[in-house]
Amino acid sequence: KIYSTEETKQVLRLSLTEFSLPKFYLLFGISKVKSAAVIAFRSSYRDRSFSPGSYERETFALTSLETVTEALLEIMEACMRDIPTCKWLDQWTELAQKFAFQYNPSLQPRALVVFGCISKRVSHGQIKQIIRILSKGLESCLKGPDNYNSQVLIEATVIALTKLQPLLNK
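^ NF1 protein, sequence as received from the core. Prediction below:
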């Protein structure tokens, strides 16, 4: 059983209210609607005009991911205070690290940002791995400046390193 303190309930209420505001739809990649529920619960059964290719997909900026991750981390940390044996953050960090250091043009940049945002400690070995990823991204950009995936990877490594640098020993 989870015993929620008033402080935790307040964090959850404020977060829900904040995420329900239209200005936050963009963070989730759904800014072109009046209500997030319109997109979230739309189905071809209820709306026959909808098809997967009938709307233009919005890009999900890494800076938006950074903001969403930090907001989710705040919610998770508030809930974890009420659950003494909670390992959610450790599991999330482990998964983010796994995907951050595994080559995948779609997932790796996002995982790097998440890993940078949620990590509470970092080793020199992890920093070396991120610098190697940055180096590979830079090499790829030099070969062809139009390589969008490399540019995204470079941006992700810079965000991750910026977040992780304060965690390093002096």
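DSSP finds eight helices and no strands in the chain.
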